[in-house]
Structures are given as C-alpha cells and as structure tokens.
Design goal:
Among the domains are: 73-177, 2-Layer Sandwich (Beta-Lactamase); 475-622, Heat Shock Protein 90, CATH 3.30.565. The protein has 18 helices and 16 strands. Mean pLDDT is 75; it is low at 1-5, 204-218, 348-363 and 584-588. The chain has 626 residues and is α+β, with helices and mostly antiparallel strands. A five-stranded antiparallel beta sheet has the order 2-1-5-4-3, sandwiched between helices.
C-alpha cells in the first residue's frame, strides 16, 4: 500500500515557483518601464540643455560679429584707409583702446584692399594676402573661419561704396576656448570643428574625472550631437554619465527588490495558510477513498463535511458512486441472464464488466452492448423456440399409447391385431419417432445458432478488452491494417443492419507505428461511426464506406471515405472546432480526434465536394521523429 501523499508540501512546490516567476516578471517589467521613462526624460533634458548651450554659442558669435561690423563702419577707421599721411597719428592709439566682446588678447587688424597690414591692437604685424580671402572681401562678402586652432573673421571696409580694406578679428585656440567657456554644470559639453577636433570643453567635475580625451561612443555615457545654428562648421556634444542619469532607477531597483521580498514572504505565508486549511479536508477525503479501496467496500459514502467546495466534491462523488453502483447492479443482472444460456458467455461478460470497472473508462461500452443486444435477439428467438417445442405434446401422446397398451395387456395380441385403435398404435408410434427425429434436428439447428451468437459475443468482448483505454498512455508498435480491421469487426452489426458496403484498400507493406493503440482505436471507431451516421442522414441507395492505408517517405496513415450527406464548404474548417458537432455527443468528437492526432505528430484533414456528395477524413502521422 502506498502511503498517502502529503498535500501541503505538494501545493507549495507547485505554486511557489510560479509565484516567484510572476513576481520577477513584474519586477523586470516595472524596472524596464521605469528605465525607459527616465531614459526618455534624460534624453529630452539633455537635448534641451544642448539646445540652450548651442543658442548661447550662436549668440556669442553673433555679438562678436556685430562688434566687428560696427567697427568696420566707424568713420575713424574708414578715414584712416584714405588718410595715408596722418593715420599713423590716431589709428594705433584708437586700436589699442578698443573694447569688444572678444576675450582679452584677441587681435583686431586693419589692412588695405590687398591685405597688407595697416594697423592693429597688437605689436605683431600680420598681413592677409590669401587669394581666396581677398576675392571674398573684394566682392563685399564677410569671411568666417573657425577650427580648433582658432577663429578668423574678416569684414570688408568700404569707402564711397568701394572696398578699400578689411577689418580682421583673430583668436587663437586658447582665446577661442575662452570665448566658448561653459558654465560648470553636472554634465559635459564639447564644442568641435568639422574635423572632429575639440575647440572647447566644459570645466566640470565630470571633465576632470574622465579626462579631456573621453569618447562618449566608447564609454557608458548618454550623449547628443547638435550643429550650431547659422554656424554649420561647429558641432556641440552634450554628455552625461549613465550612472548619474539612472541614479533614480537604482533607487527604484532597491525599492522593488525590497517590495518583492516582502510580497514573496506574504505570498508564502498566504499559500501556507490557505493550503493548510484546504488540504486538511482534502487529506481526509483521500484517506477515506484509500480506506474504501483497501477494504474493497464500495458501499461507503464519503462524509459531506469541510469547506463548501469539498462538500460539493463529496456530494458529487457520492452521486457518481451511486450511479456507478446502479450500473454495476444492472450489469450483474445482465450477466445472470447470459449465464442461464451459456457459461462461456457469462465468463466473458463478467470479464468485460470487471474490465470496465477496473479502467473506469468504458468509452466503447455503448457500442459493445449494442452488438451484444443484436446477438441476443436471435439467441432469445432460438430459446423461445426451444421452450415452445412439441415435446410436451409428444410425451402426452406416448403416455396415452402406454395407457392403452397397459389396459389391454392381458389381450395385447388380440388388441393389436383386431382392434382398430390397437392397429393404429404402431402406426402412431412410428409417427412419434419421426416427430422426435425432427425435433432433434430442430434442437441441433437451434443450438448451432445459439453457439454462433455466443461466439460472436465472445469475439466482440475480446476486442473490447484488447482496446479498453486505461488511465496511462500505452505506446506500442501498432499495425494500422489490423487496427482498422478490428474497428470494423466492432461495428459489424451496425454496418450489416444498414446494408453498407465496406471496401478496403490496405497497403500490405505498411511499417509499424509507435502510438497508443487504444486511443487510436477510439479515434477510428468514432470516424467509422460518423461515416455510417452521415449515410443514414442521406438515405441514398448508394451506401459505401472505403478504408485506405498509405505510406510516403516521411509519413504513414489512413483515409476513411463515405457516400453520406457530405459537408458544406463553409463548415469544413469550423467542424473541427470544439463544440461544433452536428450530432449528439459521441464521447470522442472530431475536435478530440484532431487533438489526439496532432499530439502524436500527425495531421487530420477533412474533404468534401459539398452537401449530399460524401466526405473523407485523412490522418497522416510523421514517422521521421520516431
């Protein structure tokens, strides 16, 4: 006897992994959502800051350019280009006293139209005789050049509408970096030229920490690039380390982990308590069932106590148990009737009932009992004939002959030779002998028919025993040809009474299939039953069912075709769906047939040319995976 399982650990073992998985999934999804939300906010914030910084740089350049433009329009500067004799008296002093928005140390140079140095605010004399630069100035266009090495901004100086010189602002790399100095923020700004060289970088704690040669693409930084408006030769990069950006996510992680641990503890406690209260009555129920099994006493009713659900369970079980007992009683009565006619039939029926009780799944019982009933009809007829025989009348006539002879015993010779009745006695005895012989022949014929019926019932019962489905799957090598033949034998009576012609086209070279043959038998029996029921619906003179087996390189299977009512084209797909049966429940409908076939690496397909044109069902199993 196996010891009853402890249900509480079993419940915990089955529920806790799923609960932990769900909590982890919730934590991961929440963390991902928070991370994506904060990342979006960080990117938007970074983009805003980069845009503000970019506008600030653009504004500084525009102010600087405005200062130089204003200086180029200064009368003193314009007159200095023309007054070659006296300009050295006032221009140098004027230039040394200039104040602009440029950093201290910026050079402002005035040249003639050929780019030759005239005056500047620095000691160094610089000329600008580059052809490209002079051409642009001569045409009246401003020239701005910015790179990591410095800035050059040249503006034409005009007199009477003609370009007579140019005013140049020049900043070296250090001064340019100073011009674009950023505020000290907790993020890193980098201004670069078109060659990717750094012009200026913000002096922040981050810059000191990570050094001047940091590349955001190669490190854990969040960064955004943006060109400076109106100055396409400049690129501004805003950078922020991921650790600082997602500091809130890390805090949320800690909170979620703590919340998950608390939830897990509460969940375990809740499962433990609920399991404790629910498994106690269930354990009592299981123990009661075990006692019933051990004592082999199936008249005991389960106690209807405990929680509402278990009361309903016990009540349903008791009702089912009562129905089962009534079914057993009915079958026992049927066995008694069969035992009166033949001991062999009684034993076979007893085995069938025991098999049905033991397996608890008599899915073919209705069909088997129907076949037995069909066999019992001629059996009952023959028994009635035996009961209504002429033996009683013959015995009566023999008794009268005996009485006549006994009454004339003293004059027997004279009686049989002269008396009319005495003469007829021998003739009557001869006819009685002939009648007895005829009765003997009738008895012999009746017993032969009874024996045929008993043998048929025995064969049907034997097939049912071979294919009765148990609770566990029993996969074994199976011959489809044999299986189809056995299914036909089980339904011989139903097919004969309907006068349905059965055609078989079996492949003799069919390989064996590894499958649960009991459940496959249920599928085949159900399909054959559907076939002759569809023929019943059509009520046509052409009544035929054709069974075919086939094989290919990667599959084997069978096909069942009928000349029945057929299927409308719009129902070919829906007929395999759950609950779409057009007839009463068969216990194993097309939906379940399809599920069983697909679970065994097979495919079930239905074809029909339309209503009143018959239908066919094809089942093919993949044999490559075996």
């Amino acid at each position: 006897m196996k010891k009853i399982e402890k249900l509480l650990p079993l419940v915990l073992l089955r529920t806790l992994p799923l609960a932990i998985f769900i909590l982890l999934l919730i934590w991961m999804l929440t963390r991902w959502f928070a991370h994506m939300t904060i990342q979006s906010e960080v990117h938007n914030n970074l983009k805003t800051r980069v845009t503000i910084a970019s506008n600030d740089i653009s504004k500084r350049l525009e102010i600087l350019k405005g200062d130089i433009r204003g200086l180029s329009n200064n009368d003193l500067v314009i007159n200095g280009l023309i007054d070659m004799s006296a300009r050295h008296n006032y221009l140098p002093m004027f230039f040394r006293s200039l104040t602009t928005s440029a950093p201290e140390g910026a050079q402002i140079i005035l040249t003639d139209y050929r780019g030759r140095h005239l005056v500047s605010n620095a000691v160094k004399k610089t000329s600008y005789e580059q052809k490209e630069l002079l051409e642009s100035i001569t045409e009246g266009r401003e020239v701005l050049k910015i790179s990591a090495s410095g800035l050059l901004f040249a503006v034409p100086v005009k007199y009477a509408g003609l370009t007579e010189g140019m005013l140049v602002l020049e900043l070296n790399g250090r001064l340019l970096s100073e011009l674009f100095a950023f505020e000290k923020l907790m993020m890193l700004f980098t201004l670069m030229d078109t060659n990717g060289k750094t012009i200026s970088r913000s002096e922040s704690a981050l810059a000191h920490q990570h050094g001047p040669d940091i590349h955001p693409e190669e490190s854990h930084w969040i960064w955004i690039k943006q060109k400076i408006a109106a100055f396409p030769e400049l690129m501004l990069i805003g950078e922020l380390p991921e650790g600082q950006a997602f500091k809130q996510v890390n805090k949320l992680d800690n909170f979620f982990i703590l919340a998950m641990i608390i939830n897990l503890i509460v969940l375990i406690l809740g499962i433990f308590l609920s399991s404790l209260f629910s498994t106690r009555p269930l354990s009592m129920l299981t123990k009661k069932l075990e006692i019933m099994r051990q004592r082999d006493d199936y008249n005991v009713q389960l106690p209807e106590t405990g929680p509402k659900e278990f009361v309903e369970l016990s009540r349903s079980f008791n009702a089912m148990h009562t129905d089962l007992l009534q079914s057993v009683v009915f079958k026992a009565q049927l066995e008694d009737i069969i035992e009166k006619r033949t001991q062999e039939l009684k034993n076979a029926q007893h085995q069938l009932v025991n098999k049905a009780i033991e397996s608890g799944r008599a899915q073919l019982s209705a069909m088997i009992l129907h076949n037995i009933g069909n066999a019992m009809t001629p059996l009952s007829i023959q028994v009635n004939k035996l009961q209504k025989n002429q033996l009683d009348q013959i015995i009566k006539y023999q008794k009268r002959c005996y009485q006549e002879l006994q009454a004339n015993l003293n004059q027997l010779t004279e009686y049989v030779s002269t008396d009319t009745k005495g003469k007829d006695i021998f003739l009557f005895l001869g006819k009685l002998i002939d009648t007895l012989y005829e009765q003997q022949e009738e008895f012999k014929t009746a017993f032969e028919k009874i024996l045929i019926a008993v043998n048929y019932i025995t064969e049907i019962i034997s097939l049912q025993q071979n294919y009765a489905a148990g609770e566990r799957e029993n996969r074994q090598l199976t011959n489809l040809n044999v299986l189809l033949n056995d299914a036909l034998k089980m339904q011989t009576s139903a097919l004969k009474v309907r006068e349905i012609e059965v055609q078989k086209d079996f492949n003799s070279d069919l390989p064996l299939l590894t499958i649960d043959k009991n459940k496959l038998m249920q599928v085949i029996v159900n399909l054959i039953k559907n076939a002759y029921e569809s023929i019943d619906e059509l009520n046509s003179d052409e009544k035929m069912i054709r069974l075919t087996t086939f094989k290919s390189e990667d599959s084997i299977g069978f096909k069942i075709a009928d000349t029945g009512i057929g299927i409308e084209p719009n129902r070919l797909k829906s007929i395999l769906e759950f609950g779409r049966s057009g007839k009463g429940s068969s216990g194993f409908g097309l939906y379940y047939c399809k599920m069983f076939v697909e679970a065994n690496k097979g495919a079930l397909t239905i074809n029909s040319d339309g209503k009143n044109k018959g239908a066919s069902i094809k089942i093919a199993f993949d044999i490559n995976g075996e």
